[in-house]
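During the second half of the funding period, the structural biology subgroup turned its attention to how the target accommodates small molecules. The most pressing case was zinc ion, which had performed well in the primary screen but for which no bound structure existed. We therefore specified the complex as follows and requested a full 3D prediction, including the ligand pose.
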Amino acid sequence: MVFSDKDPVEQNDGADCGEVDLARRHLLRLGLTTLPFLSASLLLPSPLWAAVTKKATILEPLNKTTAPPAPSSKPKPPRILMIDPGHGGHDPGAIGLSGTQEKDITLDIARRMASAFSVEPNIKVHLTRKDDVFLSLAERVERGCAVKADLFISIHADSAPNHGARGLSAYTLSEKASDQFASLLAEKENHADVKGGLGLPVEDKEVAAILFDLAARHTRNTAQRVKVGFIKGMGRRWTLLDQPMRAANFAVLRSPEVPSMLVETGFLSNKHDESLLVKPLQRQKIAGLMAKELAFLLKSPLFG
Ligand SMILES: [Zn+2]
């Protein structure tokens, strides 16, 4: 990989600020609002970086001044959390040893989490479903994207053939899924092209594809950090699975734009976990703990 011969910190700190602002605006035009700007300048080969900044310069009106905007005293917009209660409608999810249906447990925990966030004025919470209805996995992902969620959390309580398995665990998208991930990105790019979305010449499409990939990597890295912080926090107050930080190719985690995590609150195939999850008081406890940990992470520098 080729790096610029100029110190990237200097690039952000001195006379090039105007150029940096222009390039940032160009990234925003491409919908790359989650891409850390410094990462892009560090990771892009310099000819591509030059192409981005050049394109941005061309797009600016000639008579526009490049003076940096005055610092704003506006309050930060609220963080947006999408909570996704797993399953629903004709899909009951896992069935517990005593007949408990996963879809009911997930919906109740999600509702309790949403009300626990009412004490957090700077976090706005949405649910993918508020009732016992079926949603496809793609619809769930779409709903997170539609509200421009900062974080997407899918709630589950599954079962395992080993009835001894118990405890909470959290999943992010696995590296193994990266090929499919790449093909999803390609599909999205092609779709945008058909609609005339970006409307850029070929060389700019290559730049956009690379930037898009960088943004997707950033999304996955953020989810990974959320998982580590979440599991560490939950482990102080709730029983965890033996290896609680997990990764798998869940369709509901594949958004390239929204950091996504799936939480298995416990195993309905384990009598201890099921006996906890059927009790409203215990569901209230786990919902409150999860809300507290997620609120802490959403307010942390991880989300700017
Ligand atoms: Zn499930």
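Two results from this model are relevant to the next phase. The CA atoms of residues 19 and 96 lie 59 Å apart. DSSP finds ten helices and six strands in the chain.
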